[in-house]
Amino acid sequence: GFDLKKANELAELSILATKASTLDAGQAVEFLLSATKQFRLEGEQLTAALDGLVKSEDLSAVEAKDIADAFKTGGNSLAQFGKDINESIGLISALREQTRKSGNEIGTFFKTLQTRIFAAGESRQALQELGVSVQNLDGTLRPTLAVLNDMKTAFDGLSEAQQANAAKAIAGVRQFEELIGTLNSLNR
User: Fold this and answer.
1) How confident is the prediction along the chain (188 residues), in pLDDT tens digits per residue?
2) DSSP character for 136?
3) Cβ of 69: how many Cβ atoms within 10 Å?
């Protein structure tokens, strides 16, 4: 659904991505499509996102493939986390280093967490008990990254057992470790 100019730009950036990172052509296209569709990036912004991906690969023990897989699996939930592709790249990289989970697992975690913390129910109630709000005063939803930062502050005052119990209530029994890993990685 792109015009010829946009398709050529994506093709050129995909080729550049394969030369500057460990991405193959398909993974490069997937990452750039995610950046275009989910974050609405174009032109120089898209090039900057690719630079952020390559820089993350250089600075951390993460391959660009893992980040691209997380974007592919996580879908729009990653765009909702902070509304900034570099914040999403950073979150994925930090969680990958912390947990050694695959990009697909990380994408699934962020997609699931997004749903759990913003839907009414046990997860949202557990957040409220920690004093963390998911809504602004006007009723709009806060960026997920802001909620996570508040959650980290709340968790810092808890014992390990209390953190584990709260994380299980918020993220679920299968993904509580990823939530704790994410909170521990926020400063990175």
Assistant:
1) 678 888 888 899 999 999 999 999 988 988 998 888 888 898 899 999 999 999 988 888 789 999 999 988 887 888 877 678 988 888 888 888 888 889 999 999 988 888 888 888 899 999 999 999 998 889 888 888 889 999 999 999 999 999 999 999 999 998 899 899 889 888 76
2) -
3) 22
